[in-house]
Structure formats: structure tokens, C-alpha cells
Amino acid sequence: MPAASSDAISTSHRTLSTGCAFWTAHAALPGTVSRQGSAVLARLNSNRLRELDGFLSHLIADILSAAGVPQPEAPKALRETSTLRRLRTAERLFGLDLGAEPRLIAAQRAAAALRRPFGTFCKERLRQDLRRAADLPETWGGNGPCQLDETTIRALCGFYRSLGDVLVDALARRGDMSGNDTGAGPAAERITCETTSRNDSIFRESGARRS
Predict the structure, then answer these.
(1) How many CB atoms neighbour CB 168 within 10 A?
(2) How crowded is residue 119: how many other Cβ atoms within 10 Å of its Cβ?
(3) Are strands 203-206 and 190-193 parallel, antiparallel or unpaired?
(4) Is residue 175 pLDDT above 90, yes or no?
């Protein structure tokens, strides 16, 4: 598999950002939703979460490929595990500790639960996963956790978008966008999660300035 070009990375980064922006723009809950409508909405929310996970996985694969670590295309059934595996590889490569894995796993579990018929999953577990994924003290969603509220959706989109931003920045700091190392070495900052200070980012870098 040839190394990803800067154009490929820009395209996959823009796809992730656009997906986040689209869901954020359509985050407001409709009025009263019937039980059938709630099931449709749950499925839609699941699809959008899964899309963001897929966009992120593709972006990380392009970043790793540009950095000299080619990533084979993962089967659809293994997409979630490939996202986590690629994230761990990127963190090791760039010397990052994003602390994002628990939130990513929670988002994947929530997406899986939202695809199931009502009554076949634990609503309290879903609520906990959404809280963890969005890094919020509480989530409010109409008649239940299946109807994600606007604050939760914005937090989830901010999480995925900012994770992509940080990894693209890490590649740029490491070398050029073709993956040729400039000798500067991998980034070595500690990145922690934050949801309240900025609407467009959930990461704060300690002891380092973002480019």
C-alpha cells in the first residue's frame, strides 16, 4: 500500500470535519416523537456515530501511511477494533497520550446499542456510555437516551473532530505531509480532554503550543 499523500490526508480530514459539522447543524431534537419515530431517530444517531468512527479510522490510516506505517484496509466487521488499533499505533508513533480510548470505546458501544430494537439493550448502560463518550455529567434526550440531545451531539462531534485535528497536527510537527521525518522527532506533549473551554475542541495541550 503506497504512502498516503498530503491530498489524501486533507481529503480524509475534511471528510471527518464535514461529517461533524453536518451532525452538529442537525443536532436539535424535533418536537414530540412517537415510539416508532424514536426508533428511527435512534438508528439515525447510530449511523452517524458509526460514520464518524469510520471517518476517523480512515484519517488515522492515511496519517500512519504518510508516516511510513502502511495500514491494510480493515474488514467492515472489524472497523471498530481497527480504529482503536490505529489510534494506539499513532499515539506510540507520535509520543502522544490522548486519553481518548475510553471515550472512543464508549461511543462505539453506544452506536451498537442504538442499532438494536427497543427492549434488547440496557438504557441505563446506554446513558452511561453516552455520558462517558461525550464527557458530560448528564445527557438529556427527549423520552430517553435513544434521542440524543443537542449538547451531547455537539460534544461527540467535538471529540471526533478534535481528535482528528490533533493527529494531523502531530504528523505535521513530525515532518512533512508526505511522512518524511525532518529529524525533529515525535511530539512528546501530554494531551488531556476538556469539553468546557472551547466548543470546537476537547483537547488541551499541557506545556506545548499547538501549531
Answers:
(1) 21
(2) 6
(3) antiparallel
(4) no
Residue 70 has phi, psi (to 5 degrees) of: -55, 145
Taking CA atoms, 82 is separated from 17, 61, 136, in Å, by: 20, 9, 26
Instruction: Average the pLDDT over 91-106 and give the result.
Output: 95
Predicted structure pTM score: 0.77
DSSP state of 191: E
Give CA–CA dist 204/41, Å, rounded: 33
* Alpha helices, DSSP H, located in the chain: 6-25, 35-66, 79-94, 101-114, 123-134, 150-174
Identity of the amino acid at 134: A
Cβ neighbours of residue 70 closer than 8 Å, sequence gap 6 or more: 1, 2, 3, 64
What is the pLDDT averaged over residues 127-139? 87
By residue count, the chain amounts to 211
What is the rounded distance in angstroms from the CA atom of residue 59 to the CA atom of residue 182? 22
pLDDT (0 to 100) of residue 184: 32
| 143 half-sphere exposure, CB direction, 13 A CA radius | 13
What tens digit of pLDDT does each residue of 4-52 get? 678 899 999 999 999 999 999 988 776 666 666 678 888 899 999 999 9
**Average pLDDT of the residues in 188-201:** 33
